[in-house]
Design goal:
Layout lengths: L1 H26 L8 E6 L4 E7 L1 E2 L5 E7 L5 H6 E11 L7 H4 L5 E4 L6 E6 L5 E15 L9 E15 L1
Parallel strand pairs: 3-9
Antiparallel strand pairs: 1-2, 2-4, 4-7, 5-6, 5-8, 8-9
């Protein structure tokens, strides 16, 4: 009986200390110098996007983007090849890759084949900006044996991200 009493007492003490540590950690301010936006949009193929909300003038800020390469069964059975590209511009652009291509932009190719992109952007003007990104997903699909034609399907995903440059 005495053993059970000591065991219960230890459990109560350890639970109290854990709650105190949780409260203490919640009360400490976050001293992070750069906030980051992280969002997921499974419906459109965006698994993860990470980029700072605030950046320094003239300093390259780095970001990551993870694009979902999963295809439905009917497309994956016909897939012969695939090329995905990430277009990035520090300007706000309505539209996809064709509109971004008209501006000063960078293009990143998915060289690993896993849908991951690591990119960098440097801003030359202070203030509020909206960065535009677009993923171009090119699918080369099998055709009929008798046909000389090539089936080429392209899908795009556009992303806009607000950035404050200080």
């Amino acid at each position: 009986m005495r053993f059970i009493f000591i065991l219960i007492l230890l459990v109560i003490i350890s639970c109290t200390q854990t709650k105190e540590k949780q409260l203490e950690s919640k009360q400490q301010p976050n001293h992070s110098t750069t906030a980051e936006s992280i969002f997921v949009d499974d419906d459109n193929g965006l698994l993860k996007f990470v980029f700072p909300d605030t950046v320094e003038l003239g300093t390259e800020a780095r970001g990551t983007l993870q694009y979902d390469l999963h295809l439905n069964d009917s497309l994956s059975e016909k897939l012969q090849d695939r090329f995905t590209f990430l277009y990035v511009t520090k300007d706000f652009v309505e539209g996809g890759t064709k509109e971004i291509a008209k501006r000063n932009h960078l293009i990143y190719k998915d060289t690993t084949g896993n849908g991951s992109y690591f990119f960098g952007v440097s801003f030359s003007e202070k203030g509020e900006h909206i960065m535009s990104l677009a993923i171009e997903d090119n699918l080369i699909l099998e055709t009929e044996v008798d046909s000389m034609a090539m089936n080429h399907a392209v899908t795009e995903l556009s992303i806009w991200h607000p950035v404050f440059v200080k």
